[in-house]
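Example 381.
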Amino acid sequence: MSSFDAFLEAQLRRIEQQNLHRKLRLVSSPQGARIVIDGRPAVNFSSNDYLGLASDPRLKEAAIEATRQFGAGSGASRLISGSLQPHQELERSIARFKGTEAALVFSSGYAAALGTIPALLTDTDFIAIDKLVHASIVDAARLSGATMRVFKHNDVNDLEAILRWMAQKRGPASKVLIVTESLFSMDGDFAPLQEITALKESYDAWLMVDEAHATGIFGMTRRGRIEEVGLEGKIELQMGTLGKVLGASGGFICGTGRLIDFLVNRARSFIFSTAPPPSLSGAATAALQIVTSKEGGELVKKLRENIRSLNSGTSPVIPHLVGSEAAALALAQELLSRGFFVPAIRYPTVARNKARLRISISAAHNTDDVRRLAEALPRSQ
Ligand SMILES: *Cc1c(COP(=O)(O)O)cnc(C)c1O
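Predicted structure in complex with pyridoxal-5'-phosphate:
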């Protein structure tokens, strides 16, 4: 065996021994509340498509129409070959939806984080992130070269201690950025955004809030948690994704026109990457029309009803803690044999021995689907 193959083989064996091996499972149906996975039908509790828009005929039609008018591909980066009309329209729609001056679309949420944070910070700066933020934020923070400190999950006292430490260390020109999610993707809990915003103001820091899972389902006009808790206009950077509630694919940053102008000039994952296909912007624009209409309100109502069949909260992400990786896998397998696809989430997505089933609820589920799942689940530990 070559040294290359020997390396790969040893790594794979290690991953397997830890019950952490993953493989791709074939889905031969569209994404939706019911899918066909590895050849068998199942009710799908794995998706972030909380309003059931990913396979909505109107999104599909909009993607096809954008393809017809503007082509399958975008040709180059938007700074090189020009910015196609569907992308411009989508960004205007996002900014209007979020109530910000402007927005910038990236090919994924991951790319949005990776482009934005290193554009803002260098090795003379500081970044404080919640222990449970998404990997894209962690990677972006590392890439920036800024001094990174991790605060205990949702713990404002720990954040304050870190900010105090940074205040002593920082030079007159150095910046401090705090990053959190509003609805956490694997635990389904909410960040204390008001307290964090108050802290960033008293410590002269900036705040970036990743609303990947909250955009489209929280707040009076469904802008997200920032709207729901009344913090609009107070947060420097808002991040979101187009691949979750909005049923398409991509990520975005929104904020002031000056911020977006800066990112167009400095965010490397935007500058040095081919623009997403026109179809993506077509579909996401159609999704925003639905989410902002009366129908969007009704879908959220249906989503809440479905969530209530499982617990008393409002989060569509419901973790069912198991503990060991092997036990989580076994439980997921058993549920699948009974027709429920609920993925086991393991390290490194969550901490070791915090393996869990991650139940995602959708407005597209029947209330009965959710009730049957509740009956099939063992009592949580
Ligand atoms: C999904 C997700 C991302 C990444 O978005 P993609 O579009 O999937 O790359 C970033 N942050 C959070 C909190 C997410 O859940």
